[in-house]
## 1
Amino acid sequence: RATVLLSRCLLKMVKENIVVPEEILSFCCNGLQGSTSPLRAQEPGEREEVPGTMASPSPARNPTEVQMSQLVLPCHTNHRGELSTGQLLKWIDTAACLSAERHAGCPCVTASMDDIYFEHTISVGQVVNIKAKVNRAFNSSMEVGIQVSYEDLCSGKHCSICKAYATFVAQGPSGSKVKLKPLTPQTEEEKIEYSIAAERRRMRLVHKDTLKDLLSRSPRETELETRVGSAAVPAEKTRVESVELVLPPHANHQGNTFGGQIMAWMENVATIAASRLCHAHPTLRAIEMFHFRGPSQVGDRLVLKAIVNNAFKNRWVLAARGPHPSLPVALHTLTPSFLPPSMEVGVCAEAYGQEMSISRRHINSAFMTFVVLDQEGRPCTLPMVAPEPGDGERRYREASARKKIRLDRKYVVSCKQTEVPLSVPWDQSNKVYLSYNNVSALKTLVAKANWALASEKGKVRMYTLEEDKFLSFRIEMSVHIAAGQAFSLLSDLRRRHEWDRHYASAELVQQVDDDDMIYHVVSQKLSSENKPQDFVILASRRKPCSKGDPYVVAFRSVTLPTHPASAGFTRGETLCSGFCIWPESEETSKVAYYNQATPGYLNYVTTNVAGLSSDFCATFKACEKFLLKNKEDLIVRL
């Protein structure tokens, strides 16, 4: 009734040409929009009610989390009625950027994107759901985790599309870097992502070195296959060059081109190049990890170039997988896995500011993997590629090396912990990813929330965790030693026998780098075959990335051709174990040992599930004596 009276009064005043004061007009407009209560001052700390929303308690949510839902329309799709991957990349980048800016409180730009594997295509009429949130903030950069799924509105089906990690850099008004506030994870999932983000950052930094190392070790004469006959397509015929003008809709509020827009343009020319090889419509399956070298602004011209670097035949590969990863390696089976024919397309983006400008700025380079599917979704064979001499042959060889690295990374890094075999073969191409998996598995175990106190004897506390058919242990105590000193002493397995009576010896068989070593360990305990057990163990050490992080020493089994299983020993395995050391003060630290117990790994773990507290307590007491006895000698040596 009040709304009707207000509207009549306002209409009469307008007809009689009476000037309506702004306050009355604002009040009337608010009333017409549904406000029937008088205006009042907002109390301090009171949250403003949003019209049309219900006042109901909502669960706590990460303040950096951004959710985006997009209905796939015909204008977003290709000729098959499937969502264009370029459009999806734009949405992914936008959601991730909004999440980063929520945390930074200032504009952010895309610095890099990790590997993206697209598991399914999305059809017109379906809904794309994107969730992005900041996993960890470093000095001026932050990692944003993105999860993409689709929803079929008719059937209610939900399906995962991809998971991605992007790095964003916060920028000040003049383009200078901004120091970010730290992020405090709350849930178990957030703590795991926060902890592993530092390890992913380390892996990004060594990505180029990994490729160079693999290329230097590959025999040059065996890399190029014989390309005789008319079936081989000259790579030059697949070359594409296109130019785009950066307009205001393509840029953010600072005038910098959206990273997702650049990725969409790159995907477009890469698709054209792939189509020129196969004379069909290819499907993008993966994008290699890439970095943005510099920004581009409104008014820039972007030159995009693409060419097919290599085409790979279909083949079967054998992966060491057993019915369950807790089985000994002897029970693992080599499961054949089919790799469909695919091609790698290299794309680069360069920018210049004027039509006649000669110098161009390198913005980005990326490598995209395409497949061709028939109407039933089965992979089609691809023509061979004949690379041009010089740079073409170099790109051809690098594509083969990247494929090897990509398979290793997807196999070791992307697998769930329960899907990774106990002993993965170690070589130069996968050393970075095995090290990553080793440390991230331990950090994941540390971040679990359901540890239960099993016993406490003096300063030694033992916790257990039952999850996913694994029984895990955590033994911890405070020791009067600096965390760095404890880290140095406990990370050398050659000295383990001095305090752990279950170890007979440990030989350093390979110094991988400053942070990773491979040991051959012999145990004192006899196996069920009445033979001593031996292990080939990768030890990975990590110093804290920032304040609050622990020192980490992670152990896992690997397979080395130089140290095969021998008749004199029973080969044992460990999936995940190691130390985490937290500084409590300058002279005191908390030392915790973790072990994800599996059958066959150190009998004292599995035979003391009910009453092993005394054994663990004695071992850890011996560890404390070892640390206190050797800390002075360590100071002198340092």
## 2
Amino acid sequence: MFILKNSSSISQIAQLRSPKFRQTGSNCTLSFWYYNSGQSVGAAEMQLLVDGLKQSTVLWRAYYNMGNQWLKAVIQLGRLPRPFQLSLDKISLGFYDGVSAIDDITFENCALPPPALSCEGPSRFWCRDTKACIDSLLVCDLVDNCGDGSDEDNCNPDLQCNFENGLCNWEQDVEDDFNWIRIQGPTPTVNTGPLKDHTTGTARGHYLYMESSEPHQFQDKAILLSPLFNPSGNGTCIFRFHYHMFGKQVYKLSVFQRTVSNTKGWLLWYKFGNQGNRWIRQTLYISSFKPFQILVKGIVGDGFTGDIGLDDMSFLGCTLYNGNLPTISTTTSGTSVPATLPMNNCTEEEFVCRASGHCVQMIQKCDFRPDCSDKSDESACVMEVCNFEDKNQCGWYQPDSEQMAGNYSIRTTNVFKWELGRGANLYPEQEKHCPLIDHTTCTEEGWYLFADSSNGEFGDIADIATPVISLTGPKCKIIFWNHMNGSTIGSLEVLCKTRNKTSKLWTQSGSQGPQWNRAEVFLGIRSNFQVVFRAKRGVSYMGDVAVDDITFEDCSPLLIPDRPCTSEEFTCANKYCIPKDNLCDFVNDCADNSDESPTI
């Protein structure tokens, strides 16, 4: 079907109406191919007309000449319980010729779920009238998955929020930079944000969104706080929500869990960048032995096309906590540890757990295994996994530059050193010798660590090191991704540093191409050492060295079990248990080499 515009009359409108449809299921999508070409071809839009609603809902828009090509549009219709029609409206501006066309209209997954003869098992729910058998995770999620509403009957309203009547029992954080906004219909900025809510699928419904336009600046954050929940114990509390991340400059949405009220908690989930013009469902499984709270944080990108939406947030298998979370005193650096040590009977050779006052051996501090209930023995250590997002260096530090800055009042701006960087901050031509995208998110917004060769001189060295690691296990290794591209790349080394000795574990020099490359370095059993990444500068600025996604894998030391080894295990001379498959494999799995003894 096409419209050939060849007239000087201004603002002509052509309409194409669909048949009337009775209803759709919750996963319904509409797709079609469109052609919109011509210097003043004008806008086109698809509208949803629902019986009983005066206001139409815009589902899709094309604003201008899209060139001599067919493009595909995918529209998320979702559950529409009332009869409806679709209207394709075309406006032509006159003055010049233009051609608009549509083809291959397809509805997918639009039927209600089929009836079932039986529906057994704790993970299934049998719908009352339609007799459909659906996943129990879809119960009480604010979406009519059954088609008769029975999966949304008898739900606790305190565990749900569709934002139709406000924020329910969610709250805006007062410690963030700005607030989430409750809205109907499209967000104020074109080409970003939702056009409609998720609950009703129309412009009548409400949702929350994070405005990315001015005066908000890059990395400003808006945080939404859930009500408090009782400990889930051995059970699981399930958090379901729908998010919308559409726009070229969408940055980041993340979910945290906390058990202390004046901390940001720990990360449960995050998503970066443009995810398309659609609502996406996310399910998170939460376990906690303490009362807890969920935080949903949106972060602004560096442009106005970065709006993020939230809707239909619900909890399953959770109960509300009638109390307050504890607070914890903080040091001047803002880290969440008590200002003074608790009462304890620890010796100078032992570490004091910050929350309980329990004592653990110093060799258990920074060994990749939390021995304190609050994990404080691993708090001032290198993180097991580091992707440098949120500009977090995960415990890695530069001993030389920080020592110099502390002892002397000198300028360090032109020193060859490690820095956090990302593609979005590169100056013109810098992408020829520095990564344009990071490895974690594969976007220009993702962060990595790099040694900037525009500073320093030929042969300069930049080190970045872990704090001292007390002990590692027999299979410990470091996996990381490196980027070494440029005509004058120097070298990258991985070193192991003890009190009086530094040994080279891995090295690479010269240009390795314009991509991220994986590297793996075996550490094995070591004690009281540091890992150091050392970059050496080449002869000019055309050669930055970068690393990303550094992971310490299988690095926690072996534990002596409180049981005898099974028939499937080998008992090491030091009483450790290892799988019998690991015998005589040239790897010191026992940590005392007894699994490699010729007498086995």
